[in-house]
Amino acid sequence: MKYRIRIYNCSEKQITLEKKIKVHGMTRKLSVPLTKEQCQSLMQGKNLSMKQQEFERYPKLLKEFVVWMASRHGMPKIIVAYDRIPYIYKQGNVRITIDENIQSSKDFARFFEKDMQKSPILPKGKVLMEVKYDELLPSFLKERLEIGKLQQTTFSKYYLCRRFFTMQS
User: Fold this and answer.
1) Nearest to 92 by CA among 121, 32, 133
2) CB–CB of 16/34 below 8 Å?
3) Confidence of residue 169 (pLDDT cuts 50, 70, 90)
4) What residues contact residue 18 under an 8 Å CB cut-off, 6+ apart?
5) Torsion angle, CA of 154/155/159/163, rounded to 10 degrees?
6) Listed residue (121, 144, 120, 122) closest to 131, CA to CA
7) Deepest of 90, 92, 139, 169, by most Cβ within 10 A of its Cβ?
C-alpha cells in the first residue's frame, strides 16, 4: 500500500490523493480530490484537522489517510516529476505510457512551481515505457512489444527517486 498526491503540469486544477494497493499481483488505485490548501498543508508535513465536525466531511479515503498520517507520523518523502506521453487502446483498457525527464525533488514548499529544484534520475535520452492492461493484451500489441532488446520488468520511479537522495547523503 502506498499513498501519493498527484498533480499534472504543476497545476492546482486537479489535485488527487491516491492510494495504490496490490491485489493478486494487480495494482488498484483509489483516489479523492484535495484542495490546494489541504495539499499545501500535507506538503509542509502538517496533518489535516481531526476535529470531529471537519473530519466527518472528509471522504472515506481522506479520513483513512488522516488517521494513517497521525498514527505513523507521516511526512512527505519525495517528489517524483516526469513528462508523460500517454496512449490508450480502449479494448481491454490498455494504457501505454512513455515517461521521460524523470526527476526527483525534496522542494516541497514549491510543489506547484515549474522551476522547483529537481535532480535528473535517468541518463539523458533514457525513457521508461509502461504497458498496463486490465484483461488481455491484444495480440497485435503483444507482437510489437516483443521486439529487439525490450524486457519486461518491474520499475518504481518512487524507489529510484528515494534511492537517489539516499545516495547523495
Assistant:
1) 133
2) yes
3) low
4) 3, 4, 5, 6, 29, 30, 31
5) 110
6) 144
7) 92
Residue 37: pLDDT band by 50, 70, 90 thresholds? Answer: very high
> What span, in angstroms and rounded, lies between the C-alpha atoms of 3 and 18?
6
Decide if pLDDT at 151 tops 70: no
Hey, what's the cell of 100? Answer: 521521460
What is the sign, positive or negative, of the torsion defined by CA atoms of 122, 22, 46, 74?
A: negative
pLDDT band at 81; cut points 50, 70, 90? very high
Mean pLDDT of the chain: 90
pTM > 0.70: yes
Contact 17, 34 (CB under 8 A): yes
